[in-house]
Amino acid sequence: MNFDDTPQEAEFRATARKWIDANAPKQYEAELSKSSLGRIRLEKEDIVDVGKAWQKKKAESGWACLHWPKEYGGRGASPIEKVIWQQEEGVYGKLTQPFQIGEGMCGPTVMAFGSEEHKRHYLPKLASGEHIWCQLFSEPAGGSDVAGLRTRAEKKGDNWIVNGQKIWTSGAHYSDYGLLITRTDPNVPKHKGLTMFFLDMKSKGVEVRPIKQANGMQEFNEVYFTDVVIPDSQRLGAVGDGWNVSLTTLMNERMSIGSRLATGFPEMFEFCSNLMTDDGLAIDDPATRSKLASWAVKASGLKYTSYRAISSLSKGERPGPENSIGKLVSGMMLQDIATYAMDLQGAAGALAGADEELARGQFQQMLLSSPSMRIAGGTDEILRNIIAERVLGLPGDIRVDKDVPFNKIPTKGR
Amino acid sequence: MNFDFSDEQKQMRDEARKFLAEKCPSKAVREVLDGKAPYDKELWKGLAEMGFLGVAIPEEFGGAGAGHLELCVIAEEMGRANAPVPFSSTVYLAAEALLLAGSDAQKRKWLPKIASGEAIGTLALFEGKGNPSPKAIKLQASGGTLSGVKKPVPDGAIADFAVVAARTGSTGRDADISLFLVDLKAGGVEAKPLTNIDPTRGQAELTFKNAKAEPLGATGEGWSILTQVLDRAAVLLAFEQVGGSDRALEMGRDYALDRIAFGRPIGSFQAVKHMLADMYVSATLARSNCYYGAWALSTNAAELPEAAAAARISATQAFQHCSKNNIQVHGGMGFTWEFDCHMYYRRANATALTLGSLSYWEDQLIDRMRRKNAA
After folding, report:
1. Which residues contact B123 (CB under 8 A, 6 or more apart)?
2. Chain B, 206-235: which have a CB under 8 Å from a chain A CB?
3. Together in a domain, A83 and A183
4. Buried b / exposed e across B147-163, counting CB within 10 Å, b at 16+?
């Protein structure tokens, strides 16, 4: 049991570190180190522009999409090398946020289902950040129940005509391409009538509207499709096989090993260590200590769980299912920590932004943003279902709509 | 990074699991639970023959000389099997104290006997309510004898010797405390078994009346040694707790798959699935914290105090959570004496207090983290 690299890993790490040291945009280091939750922002520049420059530089030297084959813009690196790269890239990894959906989900789907011509044409530009991709799955009527989606695609000659609406599309407003799942046959059960496409986001009839979120920010979009024409050549997988294609996409969502999820604990520990209350330092209060200790062992538990997964990768094994707990634990922690930090602030805890003087509103921001961490990328409830079914082997839910033609499924509860 | 046990260590875990599945079925645990025997002597003998009692004791003292990572994997299996033997008191407390502070002669006298199963040892620390604290130790040492009362002492009624924390000064400092070795069979010590929530691991009151005692470690060093012993034991006991958590989770999962209600397995109801998923989450967090504790223990790392506290807290929470919800998944059947659920519930809640309570370790963790941050 040790934390050491193998000789090959150490060599790879040294090479990566040297390159990053010579090439990283160090002027943003301090600013990037600070922000830990939600979309990253830079004070003076657009994160997408800075990110694109970094991604391009990486791609030119073979450090983009490391685990992809070289001919598609990657490096042909092993999973453990990708983890080591992420560790070394550190805070600059935050600059890759606009490309993560493309690299993690859209790219792998194109790689699995696209034609060779498509792969050679689209993937290198995705890898180098020249093109940004978004993923168009969720709909107002299909969140956790993705297969309940209603966006229609109808065949007309060699094209498909798309009408409908997607929601919660991050980056749609700056994306060049989108991965789109549609319903092509409403007369069969819901999972069987879906088909996957990719499309140019500048196509006529695509309209992107920002969503004003509960926390007051605008980070996601609604995307409306009105008679959008997609050539049949941009179909991924067979007609009616969209559900299977989407499983490939979502499976790749799990490539999160090694990327640390924010828990709020380091911020909270620091806050309590410095906060003077009427009864002394907050960290000397037994109730506070007890809470801090419970959060501390959750945070360390997550850290060492990811170490176990990294160790599996290092041995060339597939990591076990342990990593599925990450988002479930960290999402709830953020919310609980924010609530308690504000409790310690008393009446002034209701203030926000710079008017909250003790921590400049960071816990208030955490409070208002944290609900999304428990919903996006699989709700807490869906994650518990996944753990129960795929890890513990419990039976799936009884699905009353499973064998019902999609257009016969009730659409209203009452 | 190789943050995992080696193949040989995993093989040892499999051996221990197989051995315990055969020699320590629920029926054997129940013999002790029902008061028919103070501990499972046959199993104790078998553990000695397998080399498990002395796995971390060096060969020169009659052990297998393997190491603490090996002991961790055995500990996990002891917890999983709910073994009704004085393993934790003898191996994690007494043997560790001897290894840390014993003279060569003391090690030669007791460690081979521990490894061979001839001697049961324990640590006599507490004197009634409260958590580990030098202030709470009143038992007096004078002229090579001890006088006073210790309780609860784990496995105190069946132990052959005890490491005893006693007062040798009155300055109000940690240096007032020293450790002693007492042969409990040599007279001067009266042992009274105490009723406790987990009869599969006995507790006793030991009354010392001018009992002959020899110093273990230097005078005034007692508290410092004790702190280290408790940290080491905390990691090892945490592995037992993780073993118990996993077993309770498995029992709950298996029952949820078998039991039909409302025309379907209860494991298909989300209320039940989510309860089991949450048990998996806490067991996984605990296991990962324990691995870090194992690393720190086996390498004597400077991080051990913090790692031990984190492992202890996480594993205590997980075992309490899993054993409690295992009963809940079983419903009414879980509340019968016949089902094994209560044995894990008892063990979880008794183990949670053996080395100091959860709140004590939470306090320790925060102190240790602050010290690290300050340094």
Report:
1. B89, B93, B94, B97, B153, B154, B162, B163, B164, B165, B229
2. none
3. no
4. bbbbbbbbbbbbbbbbb
Minimal CA separation from A138 to chain B, in Å:
23
Structure confidence by residue, pLDDT tens digits, A259-293: 668 899 999 999 999 999 999 999 999 999 999 99
Same domain, A164 and A187: yes
Q: Give the pLDDT confidence score for residue A247 in this predicted structure.
A: 86
| Judgement on whether residues A274 and A343 belong to the same structural domain of the protein | yes
**Judgement on whether residues A138 and A156 belong to the same structural domain of the protein:** yes
Catalytic residue among A207, A253, A356, A389: A253
Tokens standing for residue A109: 């789907």
ipTM above 0.85, yes or no: yes
What domain range is A370 assigned to? 265-378
B291 touches chain A (CB under 8 A): yes
Quote the pLDDT of residue A310.
Answer: 87
Alpha-carbon torsion A69, A73, A79, A81, what sign?
positive
Using the 3D structure, point to which of A206, A225, A252 is the last residue of a domain: A252
Nearest by Cα to A143 from A354, A360, A381? A381
Which regions of chain B are under pLDDT 70?
none
| Longest Cα separation, chain A | 76
Domains contained in chain B, CATH given: 7-118 (1.10.540.10), 122-220 (2.40.110.10), 223-374 (1.20.140.10)
Q: Report the alpha-carbon distance of residue B33 to residue A6 in Å, rounded.
A: 49
> Minimal Cα distance from B368: which residue of A?
A293
Instruction: Identify whether A258 is part of a domain.
Output: no
Question: Which residues does chain A have with pLDDT short of 50?
Answer: 255
Yes or no, beta carbons of B285 and A301 under 8 Å apart? yes
pLDDT digits (tens, 9 = 90+) for A210-255: 999 998 888 899 999 999 999 999 999 999 999 999 987 777 655 4
Q: Report the domain count for chain A.
A: 3
Q: Which of A301, A312, A389 sits opposite B314 (nearest CB)?
A: A301
User: In the prediction, which pLDDT does A412 show?
Assistant: 82
Of B5, B270, B288, the CB nearest to A1: B5
Q: Which residues from A are below 8 Å from B257, CB to CB?
A: 393-395
Asked about A154 being catalytic, the answer comes back as: no
Select the residue of A293, A304, A394 nearest B3 (Cβ to Cβ). A304
| CB contact (8 A) between residue B285 and residue A3 | no
Chain B positions touching A311 (Cβ under 8 A) are 1-4
**Residue A140 three-state SS:** coil
| A413 falls within a domain | no
Domain boundary among A127, A149, A180: A127
Is the residue at A118 inside a domain? yes
